Amino acid sequence: MKPNFVETTNVQKFYAALKRVNERGAVEACMVVVDGKPGLGKTTTLSRWVAQTGSIYLRAQKGWDYNWLIQELLTELSIDPVTVKGRREKFARVISTLGDRAQSASLMGQTFGLVIDECDLVSNRAEIMEAIRGISDLRFLPTILVGMGTLRDNLRRFPQIESRAPNKVEFLPADLADTNALIESRCEVQVAPDLVDFVCRVSRGFNREILDAIAHIERFGMRIDPGPEGITLADMAGQAIMNDRNTGKPVCIPAVM
Predict the structure, then answer these.
(1) What is the pLDDT along the chain (257 residues), one digit of tens a residue?
(2) Which of 120, 137, 170 is where one domain is finished?
(3) Which of 9, 56, 138, 214 has its CA at 20 to 30 Å from residue 173's CA atom?
(4) β 250-252/240-243 pair status
(5) d(CA 70, CA 55)
(6) Are residues 44 and 120 part of one domain?
């Protein structure tokens, strides 16, 4: 499978939200909420953006408290937590280093930010969310909160935080155009339109299942000499195309369509 990154509709919406943050009027409104079901490409998109910008990526854990959050930040900022004593000094060091990183990125025309993935796990905990807000406020740092469904609802419990996140992006299932773009860009063999349409329907637009289908199509396609349109639905009749996310069982292409 080709290692290409595909700018699907969801990715474009995410970049548009970041553009709005950079052009915002109220400097404190620098939070972005990204949510959607698992398997729609959120983590892949955010990981790529972090790698491109040198931003900080944290994955929230169920047991997070304030001290754990700060320890994680110090580690990601390459600061040995042992060398920084006291709660106040640790917080100050985090803020100072984040500010330095943001300034350096700005001089290079880049956006530096903080990504908190799996934020659903801590989005109902005032101590953690207020800490994130405090970090974001002190440096007006673009802060991206990533969740899977309860994040938006939980944020309504914290008006001071919710008001700082006017930019919300919901990752939705891929449509036919996005599915075609993913297959065309990632698949090592040519795929006919009828098979692309079938993949879109049975995957229900989940990137994870579409990539699973691409792997199956590639393995099959390497063994035959496809026609001018590429691998067709008829070619793969009876073959497994992906696994069903609900049952875990293979999804096979019917022999007669």
Answers:
(1) 999 999 999 999 999 999 988 887 666 778 999 999 999 999 999 999 999 999 999 999 988 999 999 999 999 999 987 888 888 999 999 999 999 999 998 888 888 999 999 999 999 999 999 999 989 888 888 999 999 878 988 998 888 888 888 899 999 999 999 999 999 999 999 999 999 999 999 999 999 999 999 999 999 999 988 889 999 999 999 999 999 988 989 999 988 55
(2) 170
(3) 56
(4) antiparallel
(5) 16
(6) yes
Name the domain boundary from 138, 170, 202. 170
CATH number at residue 128: 3.40.50.300
Does residue 225 lie in a domain region?
Answer: yes
pTM: 0.89
In angstroms, the CA 117 to CA 32 distance is 12
**Same domain flag for 56 and 181:** no
Question: Do 15 and 141 fall into the same domain?
Answer: yes
C-alpha span between 41 and 47 (Å, rounded): 10
- Same domain flag for 33 and 14: yes
Residue length of the chain: 257
